[in-house]
Amino acid sequence: MSADTLPRVGCDRLADFIARALGSAGLPAADARIVAGLMAEADLQGSDGHGVIRLPQYVKRIRAGGINTSPAVRVVHERAAMALLDGDNGMGHLVMSRAVDLAMDKARSAGVAWVGTRASNHAGPASLYVRKPSQQGMVALYFAVGNANHLPPWGGMEMLLSTNPIAVGVPAGSEPAVVLDMATTVAAYGKVKAKAKRGEPLPEGWMIDRQGKPLLDPTRADEGFLLPIGGHKGYGLALIVGLLAGTLNGAAMGREVIDFNRDHVTPTNTGQAILVIDLSAFGPPEAFTAAVDQLVRDLRASERLPGVERIWLPGEQSHERRRRNAEAGIPLPAALLTELQSLAIELGIEPLA
Amino acid sequence: MSADTLPRVGCDRLADFIARALGSAGLPAADARIVAGLMAEADLQGSDGHGVIRLPQYVKRIRAGGINTSPAVRVVHERAAMALLDGDNGMGHLVMSRAVDLAMDKARSAGVAWVGTRASNHAGPASLYVRKPSQQGMVALYFAVGNANHLPPWGGMEMLLSTNPIAVGVPAGSEPAVVLDMATTVAAYGKVKAKAKRGEPLPEGWMIDRQGKPLLDPTRADEGFLLPIGGHKGYGLALIVGLLAGTLNGAAMGREVIDFNRDHVTPTNTGQAILVIDLSAFGPPEAFTAAVDQLVRDLRASERLPGVERIWLPGEQSHERRRRNAEAGIPLPAALLTELQSLAIELGIEPLA
Lengths: 353, 353
Known about the structure:
- The structure is a homodimer of 353-residue chains.
- With 353 residues, the first copy, chain A, is of the alpha+beta class.
- In chain A, 38% of the residues lie in helices and 16% in strands.
- Chain A contains 10 helices and 11 strands.
């Protein structure tokens, strides 16, 4: 079923439902609202592997005691242009929201700032956290350790690495911000899960099985592993992102990573990092955003290969989806909707529709 | 001819020769020594697309007036954790050396620092500039705008982007530092040039021609373009690196990039950026480097796919080559050696061997 024929739900209504569910599971109301807002925003922009699809799993983890519902998020180390946050095993969305605000504050004075997290948790799609800085005249780079290892080192069979995503947001002038959000694997594991929910096969090149053969059935995903982009280069990127977002912060990396799809209790000790660059430190921001606009237009208007209808900028398709979904509502696959309604019954809360 | 049967030259002797050539072309002796040392170091670690192979081109540009031989490198903007350097069209190696030192100084107090450059020039392989910080307990990330556009946007035919490399250096304890050095294309253009020098065909997947067909003959490189890693992801990375290293600094990007292989006169206005993270800001550096050692060993010892002899860490092969070349000398292809001897005659300097 294409997105055009799926039932749709308004973003606010979706956020309200998520907040009810998280609140019922044990999160304080104000925290539930923040997390729910970010989760619904993920769906709004079409990051459908990281939005409401994760709600049942989050609820399970909260109810199992795998999340601290009243965390004391604290600064462990701090200098003019950096901080290390301990998330006290709170919801990752809360920890990362705090990290972004702190990095923006520090960047405003120091020009550039880096904030790392540990004892955090899964925080949704990477691009969520570069959006706010990019709306306020700042470039942001985000790195995270994924919450399950699906990637072996290049040439290997043992899944010691995750898809460790990178997101970068760069403000433009009248054009949409350039927003890159990519797993260091050909596909993120969340996209594999989304394919499974939709009952669609995996494209060749996303995963291989332990014999090195293409794995196309997403319901068999746990019998294989993801492939890195550009072979050894993607492996290198995944490792570096893990070192920066995990090891540097004293967060889990390599063998220490908990598979949060299977284990709902053990603290994940998730690590993330955000780098914020204040444009105004480099000269008049208008000169920069005008140059970005020009570059975007040059790329978009450039000569296309035969059969290519349009050249897209990173983040432009999410931007369009966000606009369409804000107007028409967020499309929800039938299987997901059914699962959410069961969850509502289980939690004794008002259902989504 | 494999590297094992090529004539070899000691690193110091190579650096001396490069310094003579650059000095004869017009660089002050002290500057010539710095540039020559970095160029020879590139060859030492096996970055053979960016070492002495570039000497004839650098000499041509210096003699044509395309390089300022007495640049006033200056800080244009500065805050606690950032600086923007104007290289005054000096040799890129000089500008970047200054940028690295400044970033390290600032990171020592602010914890993290970012230094961008403009009016710089080609500075050799990206990994050269993350090496020094990684030897002094600092993580470094380097981004640069390549000096010729060989990459169209994804789906496009117009080469508006360069191979825009990324390098990251992460200190370890007793293991070699983890050093990633990658073009955002499947192959760097320097590797294409090295293939041409060696008379070897290009592997399929490196380049396509303007009909979208594989281009395998490196002497026809200017009839085609490079392919990005991971399709649209590599295109996104190349663009982001260009925005961070170029546009942010007021350096050339997109249509403004000068092809320094064809144009030896126009200032390239090359942009680079270096981010340095002081490990000691995040806690005891020994805890970090011990964790890196453990991770490196876990990856190296992990189960291999059939037929794979060894799992390598990023930078490990360069590290081994550096050790071997330091002992046995740097292998130089016959065609390159001949070219360097002609250059010596042309410049009236003592030849290499």
